[in-house]
């Protein structure tokens, strides 16, 4: 099940992510439905809900969007194209409803764990904080990976709530080992992956609201996901913060598509092997 959330009302620095679902869908025509390991994706049935309307503020629309997404058939793998990262709030609320013991992997240059940031409770720096509240997710079942830009109160929250955070250096040095460590922490819980494209280095994903140097290559991110998929039950993916107006030669949108297609292949393979 695929849906877009064409929303960037929570972006405080540079808007543009609302245009991502359309850009990514348009570019998808150039991608053959075959993964890099040669698995045909044509066996996947794809239902596209189109773009869900978030209005001017996701604060007032997240519950309705969560209702739409939560109506996906129980076994369906949910894939959502954002949108700024606050678009993940309804996604995670829906996923927590569909999978009561949900675990979350938050791939991001920023933990987004401020209660209040840049003048609002609903700016991008608050995305995960609001998602934990709205989806009623246990922070102990959330793993952060790739973070490298912090507000001090975020580090405080991570420490106090006992959240597992894999430092960017550790993930970059050995992505497969990082994936195994994440999988061990997730255990048997169904896993949703929230992929902020800014976890990638700006060299691989320049088109994003707040790019952060020193990030992962697309290859490293794929290696982390592959190691996780061998061990975990993947139930969903969202790819957020792609900003077409800030992109160059569609590099970022194509990276997002690569992550989506490979995730589909990995989920398919994981489901067959387990
Ligand atoms: Mn984010």
Structural write-up:
The protein has 274 residues and is of the alpha/beta class. The chain has one domain: 3-Layer(aba) Sandwich (Arginase, Chain A). The chain contains nine helices and eight strands. The chain has helices at 20-27, 58-70, 88-98, 127-135, 152-160, 168-173, 175-186, 218-229, 251-273; strands spanning 2-5, 48-52, 78-81, 103-107, 142-145, 164-166, 191-196, 234-240. It has an eight-stranded parallel sheet, with helices on both faces. Helix 1 (20-27) packs across helix 9. The mean pLDDT is 96. The chain binds manganese (II) ion (MN). Residues 85, 108, 110, 112, 124, 127, 196, 241 line the site of manganese (II) ion.
Q: What are the defining features of this structure?
A:
single chain; 274 residues; alpha/beta; Arginase, Chain A; eight-stranded parallel sheet; 38% helix; binds manganese (II) ion
In short:
The chain is an alpha/beta fold and 274 residues long. Helices cover 38% and strands 14% of the residues. It has a single domain (2-273), classed as Ureohydrolase domain (Arginase, Chain A), CATH 3.40.800.10.
List the helices and strands and how they pair.
Elements: E1 2-5, H1 20-27, E2 48-52, H2 58-70, E3 78-81, H3 88-98, E4 103-107, H4 127-135, E5 142-145, H5 152-160, E6 164-166, H6 168-173, H7 175-186, E7 191-196, H8 218-229, E8 234-240, H9 251-273
Helix pairs in contact: 1-9, 2-3, 3-4, 7-8, 8-9
Bound molecules: manganese (II) ion.
CATH level-two architecture: 3-Layer(aba) Sandwich
The tally of domains stands at 1
The profile of the biggest β sheet is: 8 strands, parallel
Helix content: 25-40%
| CATH fold topology | Arginase, Chain A
Rounded to an integer, what's the Rg over CA atoms?
A: 17 Å
Count of DSSP strands = 8
Q: Determine the structural class based on helices, strands and strand pairing.
A: alpha/beta
Question: Strand arrangement, largest sheet?
Answer: 2-1-3-8-7-4-5-6
Count of helical segments? Answer: 9
């Amino acid at each position: 099940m695929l849906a877009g959330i064409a929303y960037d009302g929570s972006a405080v620095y540079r808007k543009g992510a609302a245009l991502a679902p359309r850009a990514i869908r348009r570019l998808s025509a150039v991608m053959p439905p075959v993964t890099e390991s040669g698995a045909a994706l044509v066996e996947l049935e794809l239902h596209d809900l189109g773009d869900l309307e978030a209005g001017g503020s996701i604060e007032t629309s997240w519950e309705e969007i969560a209702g739409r997404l939560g109506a996906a058939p129980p076994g369906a793998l949910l894939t959502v194209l954002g949108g700024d990262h606050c678009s993940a709030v309804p996604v995670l609320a829906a996923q927590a409803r569909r999978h009561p013991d949900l675990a979350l992997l938050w791939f991001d240059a920023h933990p987004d764990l401020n209660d209040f940031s840049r003048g609002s409770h609903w700016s991008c720096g608050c995305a995960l904080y609001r998602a934990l509240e709205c989806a009623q997710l246990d922070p102990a079942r959330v793993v952060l990976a790739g973070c490298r830009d912090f507000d001090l109160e975020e580090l405080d929250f991570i420490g106090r709530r006992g959240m597992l955070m894999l430092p960017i250096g550790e993930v970059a040095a050995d992505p497969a080992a990082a994936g195994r460590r994440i999988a061990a922490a997730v255990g048997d819980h169904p896993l949703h992956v929230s992929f902020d494209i800014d976890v990638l280095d700006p060299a691989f994903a320049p088109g994003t609201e707040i790019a952060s140097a020193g990030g992962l290559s697309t290859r490293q991110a794929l290696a982390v996901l592959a190691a996780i998929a061998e061990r975990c039950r993947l139930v969903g993916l969202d790819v957020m913060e792609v900003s077409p107006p800030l992109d160059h030669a569609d590099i970022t949108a194509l990276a997002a598509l690569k992550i989506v297609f490979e995730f589909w292949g990995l989920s398919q393979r994981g489901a067959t092997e387990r």
